[in-house]
Design goal:
The complex is a heterodimer of chains A (464) and B (286). Chain A is mainly alpha-helical and 464 residues long. Helices cover 71% and strands 3% of the residues of chain A. In chain A, helix 18 (377-390) packs antiparallel against helix 19. The longest helix of chain A is centred in the C-terminal third of the chain and has 27 residues, at 437-463. Chain A starts with 15 loop residues before the first helix and ends with a helix. Chain B has 286 residues and is of the alpha/beta class. A 9-stranded mixed beta sheet of chain B has the order 2-1-3-4-9-8-5-6-7, sandwiched between helices. In chain B, helix 9 (271-277) links the parallel strand 8 (254-257) and strand 9. Classes of the chains: A mainly alpha (464), B alpha/beta (286). Chain A binds chain B through residues 108, 111, 114-115, 147, 150-151, 153-155, 157-159, 162, 247, 250-254, 256-257, 423, 426-427, 430, and chain B through 1, 3-4, 7-8, 10-18, 20, 212.
Chain lengths: 464, 286
């Protein structure tokens, strides 16, 4: 496999010492991201500072040109290197999706679904865990991991207190946190690593779903079953207990958050349409060339018409830290590519891949998971996607899936492994549940280990 | 974690108190007077006739205590305890001529309301001639009075039980406007909070909860085939003057309110001024 293929595009020759210098900077950036909470700095600023430094050093060591000519509709524009270095289609998907979800949530649709499910559980704790678990997976798949955890986690706190079952909250929140990363595997747009790796590999939305769905189903069932067993989530035995639990959940009014029936219906239709259009983007005439980012932004714009006089409120609510982080990250990765750092890592990966189809693919998955458990999985996914793409890895290779599964599931090993597990821990603390870093790892490792074993088997036996 | 707060708020808002009707066990009614035996008997009969209009008191037995049966507050409390009534009826300023000045409940009634397990129906004084012309005739219009209605099932049980079949039960929830304005004044001095938005949203939320609860009362009583009409009165206002006006305007026959506060020995904050000042109609103090 031509590991250096991607570096043969006219890059400058780079000395080993310069490559090592940039490698050290990359390690420092990843370490800084891992210590994000400790240094009290947002991701966008951390990576932004590194982007500024590597761009400057890249110019000093003649690793990157200051600007590049870009041909647009036959007209050649000269753009600073950091503009075309950013994958704007990924940025468009994230911006459009987050705006769409934010406006849709104002219709009360998600709280309506959540409360309907709570009532359908009739307050039975075991059934409630299954319902909330399934809801977490579906919301993670359709919305995003963090929003899913916020919705289901906040409902968990309120409903378990209402049911007088606050002692079960830790088990519920932990299982939900872990399930966000399972649900995040379901579709191409369910998590950022999926978008990055799937886009780089050229995997369509439908192909991604077909490949990932069986694992998500089995992984979800396994995780909820383990949670119910390890946390001893009870089944109500007597009629009195069941009647009281039912009485408590009947006090929930699913319509309370629905301000307008018309907008509620419109949001429901639009959400279904969004999923259908995103799923079929690759085959829709004209749309397929504009991509999923265009679809996401279009749906966001349609929803914003409802709030046309106050759209600025929604613009302010966009996670600019996340978008800034991505933009800066793409710049850093781009410079690292020119500095031959990715080539160097690619050589290391080639050694692992050289262990064979089975051991190599499995090792990439486990290594991705371990790396994702201590730092952000997005730079990892971006870096590995770039490396695998540069190696000419075909889109049906199991290696792509090793990265996807490893990057997503690694977030379940530690509380800092993914943004959604971090949200789960924050909600735990908000509910006076004292869970330390070590305490989380101790509780989460059995689930994460089971999920990783399942993922390795699945990738090797089904996807390879 | 602002979004966590937002969703928690949405889910808390969706958690509503739902009324579930329960029958009130009104078996023995004890009428306490400081009158001579003959007058006491006449007074007792008039109260019995009045209370027989209440749906919950139709099968109750009535007993009247005359003034000679208790010479001190201690003896009176003992008599009440021995009788173990499910409802005590009395009037203000027992064993005193304090009824001539409308400024107190009198020692006996004050203690009765706080020491007996049973609710106390405070009647207009038989000699004071302050009763409204529509008072003590029937219980066609009953007004439940509180500033915290949502979830107060017991108040509604009793108010419904006191309402005559075919009558109207008005469930009122009056938020103290002065307290509300005091908080809004503080909010108006905090730059990070939009005062107009705070006023609108807090007022709407304060009034929505009792309104939703009254809806659930209406639904539950209808489902139980209780033949009374439930009206809602939910507003910001000045509680005492608003209730005084309502009694006149709607010709209210009985007020029902909570008296006890688990955290103190004295009467509940709103109950005392109402019991002292609204002397024209019977007041059921729970």
């Amino acid at each position: 496999m031509p590991v250096l293929a991607f570096s043969e595009g006219g890059h400058h020759e780079v000395s080993t010492s310069v490559t090592l210098l940039f490698s050290a900077i990359l390690v420092a950036m990843i370490a800084s991201l891992a210590l994000e909470e400790k240094i009290h700095a947002k991701k966008s600023l951390i990576v932004g500072v590194f982007a500024i430094v590597v761009l400057f050093l890249g110019m000093v060591f003649e690793v990157v040109p200051g600007s590049v000519p870009v041909d647009i509709l036959g007209e050649t524009l000269t753009l600073p290197i950091y503009i075309p270095g950013i994958d704007w289609s990924v940025i468009a998907i994230i911006l459009g999706s987050s705006l769409f979800v934010d406006v849709t949530s104002k219709s009360g649709l998600f709280t309506w679904i959540a409360i309907k499910l709570t009532k359908a559980s009739r307050g039975e704790p075991r059934r409630l865990l299954w319902f909330y678990g399934l809801m977490t997976v579906v919301f993670s798949a359709v919305l995003n991991n963090v929003t899913a955890m916020i919705i289901v986690g906040s409902l968990t706190g309120v409903s378990l207190r209402k049911l007088g079952r606050a002692e079960l909250m830790l088990g519920f929140l932990l299982v939900e946190g872990l399930l966000t990363n399972i649900g995040g595997l379901l579709t191409l747009i369910s998590s950022v690593p999926n978008i990055i790796v799937g886009t780089a590999a050229g995997i369509s939305f439908v192909s991604f779903f077909v490949a990932a769905a069986p694992f998500v189903v089995v992984g979800t069932a396994l995780t909820i079953w383990m949670g119910a067993t390890l946390f001893k989530i009870p089944v109500l035995r007597t009629d009195e207990e069941r009647a009281e639990a039912q009485r408590q959940v009947e006090g929930f009014d699913e319509n309370d958050g629905v301000q307008s029936k018309g907008f509620f219906t419109f949001a429901t239709v639009m959400l279904c349409a969004f999923i259908v259009v995103i799923a079929t983007t690759s085959v829709l005439p004209y749309i397929q060339d504009l991509g999923m980012g265009y679809v996401a932004l279009t749906f966001a714009a349609i929803m914003l018409i409802r709030y046309k006089s106050s759209v600025d409120t929604y613009y302010r609510a966009v996670d600019w830290d996340l978008l800034g982080f991505f933009a800066a990250l793409f710049v850093v990765i781009n410079v690292m590519e020119h500095a031959q750092v990715l080539t160097m890592i690619g050589h290391g990966l080639e050694v692992i891949i050289g262990w064979g189809d089975v051991a190599g693919t499995g090792a990439i998955l486990v290594a991705s998971a371990l790396a994702s458990s201590v730092t952000d999985n997005i730079p990892l996914a971006a870096m590995l996607a770039k490396i695998l793409g540069g190696m000419g890895t075909p889109s049906d290779s199991a290696l792509w899936w090793s990265v996807v599964f490893g990057a997503n599931l690694g977030g379940n090993i530690t509380p800092i492994g993914s943004a959604s597990t971090l949200v789960a821990v924050t909600i735990m603390h908000k509910n006076d549940l004292k869970v330390s870093f070590g305490g989380f790892v101790t509780k989460a490792v059995p689930y994460a280990a089971a999920q990783l074993v399942l993922a390795v088997l699945y990738v090797l036996l089904v996807l390879r | 974690m602002t979004q966590v707060d937002q969703f928690e708020s949405a889910f808390r808002a969706a958690t509503k108190a739902v009324y579930r009707p329960e029958p009130v066990a009104l078996e023995r009614v004890l009428i306490v007077t400081d009158l001579d035996p003959v007058d006491a008997q006449g007074f007792g009969q008039s109260i019995e006739a009045f209370l027989k209009h209440a749906a919950g008191a139709r099968s109750a037995t009535f007993q009247t205590i005359a003034g000679v049966e208790a010479r001190s507050t201690g003896q009176l409390l003992q008599l009440v305890e021995d009788a173990a009534p499910s409802l005590v009826c009395a009037y203000r300023n027992l064993y005193s001529d304090g009824w001539k000045w409308p400024h107190s409940l009198g020692e006996a009634l004050d203690l009765l309301t706080q020491t007996t397990e049973a609710p106390v129906l405070v009647l207009p004084h038989p000699k004071a001639e302050r009763a409204a012309d529509h008072a003590l005739v029937n219980t066609n219009r009953v007004l439940a009075v509180t500033d915290h209605l949502a979830g107060d099932d017991r108040l509604v049980h009793w108010a419904a039980a006191m309402t005559e079949d075919g009558g109207t039960l008005t469930l009122s929830h009056v938020e103290d406007a002065q307290v509300f304005e005091r908080y809004l004044d503080v909010i108006s001095k905090i730059p990070s909070i939009d005062t107009d938005n705070a006023r609108a949203t807090i007022e709407a939320r304060l009034l929505k909860e009792p309104t939703d609860y009254i809806d659930s009362v209406r639904d539950a009583l209808a489902a139980a085939n209780t033949p009374i009409t439930v009206e809602a009165l939910v507003q910001l206002g000045h509680q005492l003057s608003d209730y005084r006006r309502l009694i006149d305007e709607r010709r209210i026959d009985m007020l029902v309110l909570n008296t006890r506060d688990d955290e103190q020995l004295a009467m509940h904050g709103l109950a005392y001024p109402i019991a002292v000042e609204l002397r024209t109609v019977p007041i059921l103090m729970l």
